[in-house]
Amino acid sequence: MRKRPSHRNRCSQTGFGLLLLLGLLGLVVLFVAAGQLNAFATRRSLDTTTRDSLEQARQALIGYAATYRDAHSATTPPTFGYLPCPATDGNGVAGNCGTTGTARIGFLPFKTLNLPDLRDNAGECLWYAVAGSIKNSPAQLQLNWDVQGQFIVVDTAGAVLASPNAQDGGPVALIVAPGPPLGGQARTAANTPCGKAPVYANFIESAATFPNAGPLTMTQGSPSGQAVNDQFAWLTAKEVFDRINQRSDFATQINGLMNEMTNCLGSGLPTPDLPQTAGLNLFGLVPNASTTGTPSYCPAPGYSVNPDQIHLWRNWREQFRYMKCGSGTQCATVNGSSCKGVLLFGGQRTGTQTRASATDKANAANYLEGATAATWAGNGLSYSGPVAYDPASPTQDVVRCLN
Questions:
Q1: How far is the first Cα of the chain from the last one, in angstroms, to the nearest whole number?
Q2: Between the chain's N and C termini, which has fewer beta carbons within 10 Å?
Q3: CB–CB of 125/113 below 8 Å?
Q4: pLDDT classification of 42: cutoffs 50, 70, 90
Q5: What is the pLDDT of residue 116?
Q6: CA–CA distance from 16 to each of 9, 13, 19, 21, 95 (Å)?
Q7: What gap in Å lies between CA 244 and CA 251, rounded to an integer?
Q8: Can you tell me the mean pLDDT for 61-87?
Q9: Is 228 found in the same domain as 101?
């Protein structure tokens, strides 16, 4: 007769079965968790690819603008700050941007920027939109740190992420990672490094129309978005000119312009533009420049002005204010010295100053601060302050004595 298992043996077998089952369940959990971790790591790697490509392109564009004068000294206007046009095909070479003042879009001009053909996490080449206010072909004749962007960036809920504004000028350029195609987007093959024909609607979901004088609204989605998956990076006017301000020769350029203006204005003391009269004294703008030859702020007969100074004057003329004493007297003082006139340079705007519209630019309070602003507003005659632009204090007003 078979001996029945003891109660103890039955318990041991049951316990062993439970341990085995728990072990199998643990392996399943570890397998699933490992798969999820691998998927997360892959997504993070893909997102990092997009993010790194966008930032590399952004920094290259800022560098291009900051060194534009070096690489284009023989062109007009030879100045700092201009950005390249987009590439019109997938070869990465900047094209022509069409009409002056209009924003354009196309592939990132990676060869022009000395970059590889940067890709997003879907393997697509980056796109690039540039404002008409800062593009180099055809260029506006005036460009300085008050340039305004032309792009409004919103999310899919319509919340504004960036726009033209008083503090930093807003986006002057956008770099776009288009992501994989959505819906009916058909990306035609092309025999170029980017491998696709640059048809806007097949890459970018935003309905903005190019070319356009703006502002243009562009919608940023999420990487997994089913309606909009474009990812953006942008650069502002302030970022561009903060980098330019770091150049060792930028202050030399600005101070050189002021040196020549001081000599020219002092030699003839022309009537200010849009003058405000206070007794015999006149307060207003520096007379505007001609397009060629001797600028009108320089009335001295036979005075030869360096053409580069004319271009600098065109770019920076709004930053200046000028007063002239009546009847050739030395009615004013600058740092205690007697002067027949005063030249003021407003410097970079502060957070409370707005220089976007013509009305803004006509208001001296949007350029001058503190005691200088108060003296000017009261048609005062006694000024004090630094006589040279210092990049360490870019908002500081500069005052020059004219005789």
A1: 131
A2: N
A3: no
A4: very low
A5: 95
A6: 11, 5, 5, 9, 75
A7: 10
A8: 85
A9: yes
